[in-house]
Every structure is written in C-alpha cells, then in structure tokens.
User: Which sequence fits this backbone?
C-alpha cells in the first residue's frame, strides 16, 4: 500500500509513483527509487538522456513492464494489481510510432477502437472524427508506408485518443520530427490538455518541456535528480548567456575588458565571447553600444537558451551524454 | 462496462478476435513475401510432384484415387497451411520487434484474444488456400468422389491444420521474440510435412518414417482430408482427422497463451 504520507500529500493526483524500481536480469538498475506525483490536468515532462530510465518508467506506468519494487497508481488504479483498469484509462504513444506499414490510417484507428471495446459503427465514427482532428483525412485510406514521420506521429497520437483516455503517455513524441511537424504536435497536445487530459511525456529536449510542461522531472541513472517548473530548472543553470561574435577576432581581449561591466565574460572555444547577465536579451543594446563606441565591429549577438545539457551539468555535475548500458525493454 | 468486465465479456472479446483476425488476413494478403511461400510454393510443388512422381500410383498398395494429383493435393493443402502458420509466427515476431505488439498489450483486452485473433486469421487463410488448391487440382484432372461434402470437410480440416500451425508459430514467436529465428524455421515445415503421409500413403513409407508418421498428428489430418475427398474410409478417417486437428489446435493455442503469459510477466 502507499504510505499515508504520500496519499495525503498527493490526494487528487492522477499519477502517483512511490519508490519505483526496475532491475533487469542483467543487473542493470534502470529505475532506482523514483517518486513523483502528477496532478489531474497537468502536463508533466520527464526529461533525461537515452538510457536514463525514462522509457522504462513509462513502460511500468503503462503496465507493459512489472516493477521490481515500489508502487505506482495511474488514474486511481494500481499498475500491477489493477492493470486492466489502468489500460482502460490511459492512451499510449510509445517511442518511434509502432504502426503496421501495410495498414491504412483508417484501418489502424478502427482496429484500435475494437481493441478498446467500441462497436463497429462507433469505431468508424470515431476514426473519422480523429482523422479530421489530426489533419489526416485526405490520407486516411493510404497505406502507412506512404506516410511521412510527422503523419505517423499524428496518427499514433490519434490512436492513443480513440477511447478518450483520462491520461496520455507519450514517449519522446517529437523525436526525429522537423520543426513544423513538432510545432503542430505541440499545438495538438496543448489543445488536448485544455480539454482536461493529463499528459505524461518523456523528452530529450528542454525546449519541448518548456513549451508544454507545467512541471518537469529530470531523471539520471534511474533516479529523479531535479523537479520543478521549466523556469525553475532553467534558473539552475544560472544567469542567461549572450553570445557575441566579433568580425575581427583579434579584438576579443579588448572586448572582454569593456564588456565586464555588463556581466561575467568568458571565451568561447569556437571564437567570440559569452556574457552572463541577469538582464538576458535586454542587455543586447547596451553591449552593442559599448562595442560600437570602441569601434569594435559585431558580427552577431545571440541569446543562449539553457539546454538540457546545461541543466544536467548544473544538477548532476556531468554532461547529458548517453548513459552507458542503455535501457532494456 | 468496467475494464475488467470488458476483458471478461465474451461478446467484446469475440469482436476483438475478429478485428485482429481481419488485420492478420488483410496484412498477410498484402505482403508479397507471404504470398510466395503460402500460395505459390505449394502450387509449384503440386505441379512437380503430380507430374514427376505420378508413376508412384502404379506401385502395389497405392490406393486407387483416379488421378495422382487428386491424391497429393491434400499434401499440398497441408504444406500451405503449415507455411501459413509459420508466417503467422513471423508476423508476431515482427510485431514484437517493431513495437506493434506493445500497442496490443497496452489495450484492455484479454491476452488470449491476441493469440486467438492471429489463429483465426490464419485459419481463414487456410480456407482460402484449400479452396484454391482444390480448384487447381480439379483443373489438373482430379475427380473427388466425396463431392461437395468432401470438399467442405477438407476445407474445415485445412482450417484446423492452419490454426494448429499458427498456434505453434505463435508459441515459438512469443517465447523467443526473434524474427530472424522464425525465418530460419522454414526447413522444419518440410520435416513435419515429410514425416506425415503428405504425398505418399503411409503403407508405402519406410518403416522408420511410417513409425514417426504414427505420432505426427498431421498424418491423421491429411488422411482425413483424403477420406473426405474420395469418400473412402480406406484412405483414412475423417473423424480421426478432426480429432487430431482439434486436439492439435487446443494444445498449440494453450501453449501460445502460456508463452504470452510468460512474456507479459517478464
């Protein structure tokens, strides 16, 4: 049973995870004591590099994998003891949209409807509705092997929505997508969330978490190492950075001295300077003015958004390179 | 209806099985690499056996069936259904490796429905194969004294044979989850086929093969087909064929469901 403490703390939470563990037969501890709670209607971003334990956690929460220890409840049901009820309450779109290339979009949606207990007529109606919703109606009767990556992802999402789930699990939903497809999927996810769906998404992109998530958990070596709003996590990196590229690199020393009044200045390996300042983008004009007055020509000034790698470095002390050993499923 | 009730509701699960069978049938018939071994290869072997070894019907003890092609077509049906079963296993392994299987597992359906959907789809393929192969045999001069009833019984036995083969294919696929291993099982289909009296009567097999064929349930199914097609109890027992077929389906499907449970528990 869940501890009274957790139950009290997370009353009303749609996803509750307590001391969750998964140890593979190889001895790899993919999930190592994860605790988290996701409120109803929330978008929770689960960030981490490959092999950190994201997908294993999602597989446990979606009943595809049994935990080695700990407990998890989704939509009020225990993922081990009430797996059937959990499956009825959730929509799942796993990594790399697993879709049969020899079926059409419509056939797949109707099959998904049947799998979730919809009758034939209801299933057909729902398929039409979802094809319209994800802009796939014109391609509905084409085989999947003619779909682009973005179209496959949209269909994958539509399939996860067939039975109007309370909770949606998305495992790296935009990995490999072009920026337009990514933005389109983000917009659809926001719309779903506004309609009341709780969303648990894993991602390797801090930008994605910032765009979508109300709260973010960072997982590393199977443990949650940081949790908070995207803004909280961004602040862990420190002050925002401005990258200044000069036309004449030999003026870097002079520029460094002059710009010290605006913030902490450091050299970039690839040339140019980085100035860390609490003003962020608002410091661009004074910086350019300072350099202009000294007749130092500026090639470019860019605001540097903190990346997942930066947050990782700040939180764990190491880079977010792939974790050796990787995840198993 | 609650999730648990849906999972236990026979009508809901019947709809799930039919939907999965439709998918199996539809996708397999769209896959060129499936059509070749399941339909074309048995027909080629039928043509080769019927013309190349037709002198066998002159051997003492060879039953009188009018034409040799009429005798061997049961073996062709058996070959086709075994290959369809193997392809069912390959399809399941492909689903496991490609991730589609996770989609099925994350749906609120009874685990046995996933196996039974694939088995039903393969049984339907067995029906199509039997009708096609019998039609070709008729065009090649076969004469079935059992008439329409004999043909219908043979098609039903083909469905059972395909179901049993699909159950076996599913068991191996679910135990191993390996597409490459499934693809390498192709030669074993011929071991099963040639240790049953598929193309020759059991009495003309050498003593070792004859003894093995006695414990191969496919022997009773193929002989049951012949008995039905020629309305001749001397060629085998129709009910013996049904008994062996139904027992094989029950056993292989039970093994497949057990393999499924082991996979899900891991």
Assistant:
């Amino acid at each position: 049973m869940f501890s009274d403490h957790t139950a009290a703390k997370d009353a009303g939470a749609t996803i509750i995870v307590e001391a969750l563990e998964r140890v593979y037969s190889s001895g790899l501890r993919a999930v190592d004591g994860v605790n988290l709670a996701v409120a109803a209607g929330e978008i929770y971003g689960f960030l981490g590099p490959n092999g950190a334990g994201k997908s294993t956690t999602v597989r446990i929460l979606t009943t595809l994998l049994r935990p080695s220890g700990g407990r998890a409840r989704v939509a009020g049901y225990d993922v081990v003891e009430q797996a059937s009820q959990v499956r009825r309450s959730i929509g799942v779109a796993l990594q790399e949209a697993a879709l049969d290339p020899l079926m059409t979009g419509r056939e797949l949606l109707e099959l998904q409807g049947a799998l979730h207990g919809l009758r034939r007529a209801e299933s057909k109606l729902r398929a039409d509705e979802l094809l319209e919703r994800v802009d796939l109606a014109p391609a509905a009767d084409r085989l999947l092997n003619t779909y682009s990556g973005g179209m496959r992802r949209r269909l994958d999402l539509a399939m996860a929505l067939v039975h109007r789930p309370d909770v949606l699990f998305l495992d790296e939903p935009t990995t490999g997508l072009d920026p337009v497809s990514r933005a389109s999927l983000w917009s659809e996810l926001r719309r779903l969330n506004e309609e009341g769906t709780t969303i648990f998404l894993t991602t390797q992109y801090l930008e994605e978490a910032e765009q979508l998530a109300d709260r973010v958990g960072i997982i590393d070596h199977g443990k949650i190492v940081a949790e908070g709003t995207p803004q909280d996590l961004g602040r862990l990196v420190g002050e925002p950075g401005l990258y200044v590229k000069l036309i004449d690199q030999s003026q870097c020393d002079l520029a460094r001295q002059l710009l010290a009044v605006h913030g902490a200045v450091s050299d970039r390996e690839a040339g140019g300077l980085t100035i860390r300042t609490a003003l962020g983008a608002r410091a661009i004009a004074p910086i350019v003015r300072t350099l202009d007055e000294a007749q130092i020509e500026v090639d470019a000034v860019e605001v540097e958004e903190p990346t997942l790698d930066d947050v990782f470095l700040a939180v764990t002390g190491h880079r977010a390179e792939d974790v050796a050993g990787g995840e198993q499923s | 209806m609650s999730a648990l009730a849906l999972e236990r509701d026979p009508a809901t699960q019947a709809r799930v099985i039919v939907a999965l069978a439709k998918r199996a049938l539809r996708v397999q018939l769209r896959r060129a690499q499936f059509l070749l071994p399941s339909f074309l290869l048995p027909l080629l072997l039928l043509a080769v056996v019927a013309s190349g070894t037709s002198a066998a019907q002159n051997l003492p003890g060879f039953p009188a069936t009018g034409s040799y092609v009429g005798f061997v077509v049961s073996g062709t049906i058996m070959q086709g259904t075994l290959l369809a079963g193997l392809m069912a296993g390959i399809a399941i392994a492909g689903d496991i490796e490609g991730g589609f299987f996770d989609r099925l597992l994350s749906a609120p359906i009874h685990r046995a429905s996933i196996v039974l959907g694939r088995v039903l789809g393969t049984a339907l393929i067995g029906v199509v194969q039997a009708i096609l192969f019998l039609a070709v045999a008729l065009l090649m001069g076969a004469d079935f004294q059992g008439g329409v009833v004999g043909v219908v019984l043979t098609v039903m036995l083909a469905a059972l044979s395909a179901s049993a083969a699909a159950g076996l294919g599913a068991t191996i696929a679910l135990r191993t989850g390996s597409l490459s291993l499934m693809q390498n099982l192709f030669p074993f289909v011929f071991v099963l086929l040639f240790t049953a009296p598929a193309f020759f009567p059991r009495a003309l097999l050498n003593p070792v093969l004859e003894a093995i064929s006695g414990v191969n349930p496919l022997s009773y199914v193929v002989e049951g087909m012949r008995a039905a097609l020629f309305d001749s109890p001397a060629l085998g027992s129709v009910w013996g064929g049904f008994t062996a077929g139904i027992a094989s389906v029950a056993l292989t499907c039970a093994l497949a469901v057990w393999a499924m449970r082991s996979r899900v528990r891991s």
Remarks:
- Chain B has one domain: 3-50+62-265.
- Residues 13 and 113 of chain B are 7 Å apart (CA to CA).
